Amino acid sequence: MPEQQGGQTYGGSSSSFLSPEKIRGNIDPETVIGFLQSLKIPEGPKAGEPLRLAEYQKRFVRGAMAEGVMVGLLSIGRGNAKTALAAGIALGSLMGVWDDQPRREILMAARNRDQAKTAFQFICGFIGGLSEAEQELFTIRHGSKLEVEYTANGGGLARCIAADGKSILGGAPTLAILDERAAWEKDKGDTLENAILSGLGKRDGRALIISTSAPDDANTFSRWMDEPPPGCYVQEHRPAFGLAADDPESLLIANPGASEGIGASLEWLVAQARRAIARGGSALSSFRNLNRNERVSIENRSVVLTVDEWMSAEVTPEALPERRGACILGIDLGGSRSMSAAAYFWPETGRLEVLGTFPSKPGLEDRGAADGVSGRYVEMHGRGELITMGENTVPAGPWLAEVVRRLDGVAPACICGDRFRHAEFAEAMGKAGLARVPFIWRGFGWKDGSEDIERFRRAVFDGEVKTLPSLLLRSAFAEAVTLIDPAGNAKLAKARSLGRIDAAAAAILAVAEGARRIARPERKARVPTWV
């Protein structure tokens, strides 16, 4: 997904600080920018110098503080000063620079106390750069509670808290900052978020939700970015998926501060990307997620393939091998409401094609919302990777006939499927006129599953699988993990209950059978001997 350069709002002239014309709930963004640039940098090589906002920071302030906006959302790579920016805004709100409500309440929430302390230290650092007379108006508490109290201009209290919803029930914040929201624990994080947002309306409060990208579309922060409700401003710095980790232009999209002297330089980011590429595995996935701001799972110990490992099998249309030789058809027959998937694999050339199918009810948009993937299914349908058939269920016989029809009159050499669905497959093949096609029964348990997964991985690593970039397959492998038994055998499983791994299962079946056929020695006819 490309960066949203100007941000999106769903749903002025500069002025002096503490202006008497301040209107409740209406903030002049230029006042916020002016205050931030009056502060001094608290730490680092430029400590003590005046703070100068980069253009992307000004854009976020103007969008998040615009009239009618209640929630400002910022997604950007690590090290681009988003916590420092939020801390400066928190300090200005605490001092009543643009809000003169008495007894203002500012919350800065993070996943744990250590992360909350980082924001707290930024606030204290900015206070240390103020005049001595101004510093006398603050009371800083470093004990069990991380708090900053301000006594002038109606007074205010800023608190830094960890993600425990019970700690702020009954609060009425005028400003709430949710830092690194994607990293919060799901249940406690959602509880805290709901408690904070429910209190904002009491005093016309605003929330700033800032984070690097979540590892998947189902994360609450991803849902905020993809499906923002009215009254939200969204600014996301995320490069398009599928680019090389060390691509300089996309690194600058995720790290706009690199070109403006904030955080790491482009040279450092490129060098780190190349180290991560060399190390591979979790190092590369973490770099993509944290430094490139991509939605890439960082759970690598049990995944079937990492994103970069799978992307090595993707080729351009010009480089895609032709359909030649025997075609192996891998089938994952879905249940009453789940996806059915078919994978076509030509072992002779290594060409792989995959097709997914859902029933038409509910629609793809509603199904995507229910599965936590937003509009992904609609996009797959537009790319021709996903079709709908039937109403509430996918009819097995007609669907299997449609799958074979896409081979343009060529019968598959064999079909691989789950032996657990033996009776259903037999009926479907009879209805599709495929009763004479050999069927190879495979299990998804430890025995067959472990062999198929290992053969599939080996074929991908050896460059024996080639396919066009497929959102269906990328999504499936992002959700596919392996469960390991005490003997080291692996079987396929979902990373989350709502994940769809049917396309990955079908591909593994087809490629593994193709690998077995290639490895099987050809039988040579015996020369007859006359006696």
TrEMBL record:
Residues 1-21 are annotated as: Disordered. InterPro entries: P-loop_NTPase (IPR027417), TerL_ATPase (IPR046461), TerL_nuclease (IPR046462), Terminase_largesu-like (IPR005021). Residues 74-214 form the Terminase large subunit-like ATPase domain. Residues 1-16 have a biased composition (Low complexity). Signal peptide: none annotated. It comes from the Bacteria. Residues 415-513 form the Terminase large subunit-like endonuclease domain. It holds the Pfam family TerL_nuclease. This is Terminase. It comes from Pseudogemmobacter faecipullorum.
